[in-house]
UniProtKB/TrEMBL annotation:
Keyword Transferase in record: yes
Listed name of the protein: Protein arginine methyltransferase NDUFAF7
Gene that produces this protein: ndufaf7
Regions crossing the membrane: none
Enzyme superclass (EC): transferase
Subcellular location as annotated: Mitochondrion
Pfam families listed in its UniProt record: Methyltransf_28
Organism for this UniProt entry: Takifugu rubripes
Gene3D superfamilies referenced in this protein's UniProt entry, alphabetically: 3.40.50.12710
Amino acid sequence: MRVGLRATHLINRIFTHSVGSASAVRWRTAHIKLLCSSSDESRGSRSSLLRHLTSKIQATGPITVAEYMREVLTNPLMGYYVRNDMLGPDGDFITSPEISQIFGELIGVWIISEWIGAGRPKQLQLVELGPGKGSLAADILRVFTQLHSVIGDASVSLHLVEVSPVLSRIQAQELTRTCSHEVDNTDTPVYCSGETATGLPVSWYRRLEDVPAGFSIFLAHEFFDALPVHKFERTQKGWREVLVDIHPEKPEQLRFVLAPSPTLASSALVQADERRSHVEVCAEGGVLVQQLARRVAEHGGAALIADYGHDGTKTDTLRGFKGHRQHHVLADPGSADLTADVDFRYLRRMAGGGVACMGPLAQRAFLKNMGIDARMQVLLRNCTDASTRKQLINSYALLTDPAQMGERFNFFCLLHHGRLVQPQVLTGLKLEKRSPAQLPVAGFTELSYS
Ligand SMILES: C[S@@+](CC[C@H](N)C(=O)[O-])C[C@H]1O[C@@H](n2cnc3c(N)ncnc32)[C@H](O)[C@@H]1O
């Protein structure tokens, strides 16, 4: 299909700018970790997290898997994300922006393409949910700098929604040259602010609802999979919720049990026509998607959600990761990442009819549509160092190989309905009047170079 000429122009310009420069072949290696997950301090907080969980269960009974996940990942004092820098080769897992800067560059082109498709609004808010080390935002901002003549005098700002004080400090180091201003007060919507090297304002928030309204492109990369899921199992007596309890013979251990009767969540969250025998429902993700959809419908823009996920087909996907290996979900809570694949069918349903949804589309297809192959060819042509070439090829394979992230990782987006409206062609006897052709949605349709 021959579409996306404008996006290909943008990509060509990025390629031309970066070719042969040191940054074009700077593939990410491990960043220094501020807090090692195996430090004594961290081990202490993990055992206190287990104590906190067991005393909670002793007081009120078994807790839902969603509550367990929320406590383990984001407990304000002891949560895994709150205390750790877990990303990268030396951490517990690695993500696409940490594997290669090409990834962020292509997302940067996607954002500008959507901004052009929306008619180049004067204001562009880039809002990232769960920005990790800030690598994705940094690579996107570099594209914005390279395309400053395209962006013109639009006012661009960066808004980061981050729950982790450790990671927000790393993000500030990565993104802001000027000293960031931190606020301790938890009631203040903006808890940190600063400015990038090129003078763009950056603000940090704990919740999406604190981000100001306005035309925005929202990004959520490996964010929804970190949100708590409820788990349900079909039994002969109907749907029952999976809960977390203390092991009766080993009080230092937790185990999964089934609720003896329906819970509020099992009654409200399982669909009447559900065919699977085990389902995971991320109610928090559903609420967030509703908020994103409302903002896109009211103020314009788009939301790009990229994650491990499925279209309402998978069952038991909750797993733990520690040191790049799978880790039992209930073992040593707080020492490992917990993640559950995103159910995009559920997100589509929760987004409602106020926005258009595209995807899920496999990462391999999305990146190829965005021109990753052409970008690779240029980089390899300009790279003479054998080890850098090897790194380039390995990173490309990690991102696109179907057995690695190529098929398991998916892209999904919410768009303003106006973005997809077919242009009107007005014909008369003597006059044929055409409105400008609608710009196709990059990434979700194949680009052609002409
Ligand atoms: C798996 S990491 C992904 C980081 C980054 N997006 C990447 O792909 O490299 C999840 C990110 O979301 C943040 N996070 C997790 N739960 C959150 C929540 N409820 N609110 C805000 N941020 C959250 C974490 O601190 C972390 O920055």
